[in-house]
Amino acid sequence: MRAFLLVRDDREFLCHPGEELHTDLGVVDVPEDPDRGQVVETHLGEAFTVRSLRGPDLFDHLERTGAPMMPKDIGIVVGETGAAADDRVLDAGTGTGVLAAYLGRLGADVLTFEARAEFADVARENMVLAGVEDAVEVRAGDVTEELDELGSFDLVTLDTADAPDVVARLDEHLVAGGYVAVYSPFVENARASHEAAEAAGLADVDTIETIQRAMDFDERGSRPSTRGVGHTGYLTFARKP
Predict the structure, then answer these.
(1) What is the Cα 159 distance to its own chain's centre?
(2) What is the arithmetic mean of pLDDT over 91-117?
(3) Signal peptide span per the entry (predicted)?
(4) Domains of the chain, start order
(5) Distances (CA, A) of 58 to 79, 120, 188, 193, 224
(6) CA dihedral for 55, 58, 59, 64, sign (positive or negative)
């Protein structure tokens, strides 16, 4: 087993096989090849349960080099584009790499570009942690400089300031029926990406804001929570006819 979690109540610790883990409940000699659901104890007799890493756990445990895309936004990207195993995916703006890791875990073949070399190094380590280093290639550089040499893709995902410029060039880099999805924290970039997709002759161009609100339930009644931030960004989708 690769890296996994040891979980007890609201505590969870990222572990690597064979290491010695120090916690506030004692020291754990982490087993080399545990089974999911196996119970291990600290030297103080405190029990933890082994749990394998799943997609949402990556959001919490990958090393961050910036604000990662939220699971809710990733879910919309996958649902709207039908991202699936054996897709060839071009991703730009790797950052922490959560989106690339999710797509790799779906079975897609992902090439992701990160402009900053030191961030690309971290993203490569994150792909190993996510177990997708064979499915996801992290390349340091500017996707606009290499785009003409990359061929065609089933899906292009962009989280970059120059996304509108990339969208304008995508007609030759999407297979028939292929999608582009742009994540934009700012509405100006979303609008520019939307208009670039229309000008490029892409079809089904649509931009949405993604909002998620938790619910509060108590003895007085039920209502959306007033805590937290519901808005994370804008998603623009388009498809090659």
Answers:
(1) 11
(2) 97
(3) none
(4) 4-52 (3.10.330), 57-239 (3.40.50.150)
(5) 19, 17, 29, 28, 27
(6) negative
